[in-house]
Every structure is written in C-alpha cells, then in structure tokens.
Amino acid sequence: MSNGVDRTAGPRMWICAACGNHYPAAPSPPTVCAICADERQWVPPGGQRWTTLDQLAADGHRSDVREIEPGLIGIGVEPSVGIGQRALLVTTAEGNLLWDPPGFLDAAAVRQVRDAGGLRAVSASHPHFYGAITEWSRTFDAEILLPEADASWLTHLAPALRTWRDALTVFTDVTLIECGGHFPGSSVVHWAPGAGGSGALLSGDTIFVTPGEDRVTFVWSAPNRLPLPARAVRGVVSAVRPYAFDRIYGGWWAPVLRRDAKRVVEASARRYIEVMGGAVAGD
Ligand SMILES: [Zn+2]
Ligand SMILES: [Zn+2]
Question: Do 31 and 153 touch, CB atoms closer than 8 A?
C-alpha cells in the first residue's frame, strides 16, 4: 500500500498528464486519451503524455486538504495535476459524497476522507473531472454516480457505477442536477446546508465562476474558447432555478461566487445571451 491504493505487482494504471483521467492498468499506455482528443480539450503540441500515481508522487505531488466551510472539505493537489481541479467532499449524517476528484490521490487524502466519515458515493460535474473517480470508488467501496448521458466517457469498467437522469437525491440535503451544456450530462451538486444554510451549488465548470467573483459564464470548450449556444445556457439556468442557493463553488479553490449567486446566475445568463446576439459596447 502506498498512495492509498493497492500496489500489487504488475502493470500500472496510466494517467493522462493533460487531463488527469485514469486509464486501466496495462503494460503500455493507451495511444490516445479520448477525453483530450475531443474538441473540448487538447493534446499537448508534443503529443500525448502519460504518468502514473507513483511517478506523480516521485515528482513531489501531494494532496492538499482544507476545510472550506463547515461540512465541506476541499481535496486538491500541490502542485496541481492535469486541469487542476480540487475535489469537494460534502459531509452529511447519512454519508459523504466526493465530487470532481483530481487525478492524484495519496494515503494522506484517503486518511482524511476516512477521518471525515468515509465515502458513500463519488461523482463529477463532467468527464474532464473524472480523474481518480474509480480509485476513490474502489478504496471506499463507494458508488460512482454519473448521468446516463456521459457515463460512456468513464475509462474503466466499474461495477459500482449507477447512472441517473435529470436529478438524483444522493442524501436528504444533497442533490445531483443534470444541467447539460458543456457536456450533455454536465451537472452540479445542490448542497442545501451550504453557505450557512442558504444553499450552495458545486458547479465544476457547468457554471463557470469568473475571476471577479461577481459573475458566471458558460463554456462549451474553455481551453479552445468556444462558447455555449444560447439555448444550452437557458437549459443550465432552468435546471438550477428550482433550487435555493446563495453561493457557487466552481472547479478550483478560487474563484468562488460567495453571495447572491441565484440572482447573479440569472443576470449573467441574460447578459451572455445578449452578447451572443451581438449586443456589445461600441456596436
Ligand atoms: Zn486526457
Ligand atoms: Zn471541462
């Protein structure tokens, strides 16, 4: 046991260095990362690069675990791996949900999750952030909850996979909401006790918090700067409209939309659709 995962002799699983997604153990890496070859991601100019958990640990990567607010723990990697998302662990009396795991995990992260009550389920906003989802599921015998529309992007055959559509109540106060947009199954978590009881969304890049922490935006491809069509933006906003929330945690430690998030989402979507229609200053 090292890095918190089984270390039996034999082939290692491969990790795409560009996105952090894990691929099944094999003597040599896959020829292509399907997730990075897709138009929403990118392959490094020098070609696909692969690493392993052992190599990442040898290169000095370590988990970075922080309490974000009562009941919510962030699990990142320092220095970051792949796209650089940090996971969120939502803790409840009924069990815990891990969201958007990065590609690296180590024994320290596993121990802190165990100390926080373990893991009943693991999920992600979209395939770019599946990362070590299968390792976390195996380590804690936790269900993998993915929207049916995106489940075929999972790189491992996972017996613990349960698919869902539209919305799924994971625990009493924790709901997965399918919003679409960036991916057909792009999702958010609604965490009712978040933001001091006002409600929070954990949005990955389904709803993209912008650097000033006063707006959000919507993307089809962030790295390739391709926007999301207006009809898809309307779909994202209408999916979260029934839920009460005041804060949005995106896929990274920062930025965070700390307050007034429900109004900001509606106003940002209106402005986005205006701009897509040609309404920019100077016209
Ligand atoms: Zn990749
Ligand atoms: Zn993405």
Answer: no
Is the pLDDT reported for residue 4 higher than 90? no
Q: 162 by DSSP, 3-state: which?
A: strand
Residue 2 has a pLDDT of: 44
Residues 6+ apart with CB under 8 A from 25: 10, 11, 12, 13, 14
Q: Which ligand is nearest to the CA of 84?
A: 2
pLDDT at 159: 85
Q: Which ligand is nearest to the CA of 33?
A: 1
Spatial contact of 185 and 178, defined as CB atoms under 8 Å apart: yes
C-alpha of residue 113 to centroid of ligand 1, in Å: 26
pTM of the model: 0.95
Q: What domains, with CATH codes, occur in the chain?
A: 14-276 (3.60.15.10)
Reported as a single tens digit per residue, the pLDDT across 203-259 is: 999 999 999 999 999 999 999 999 999 999 999 999 999 999 999 999 999 999 999
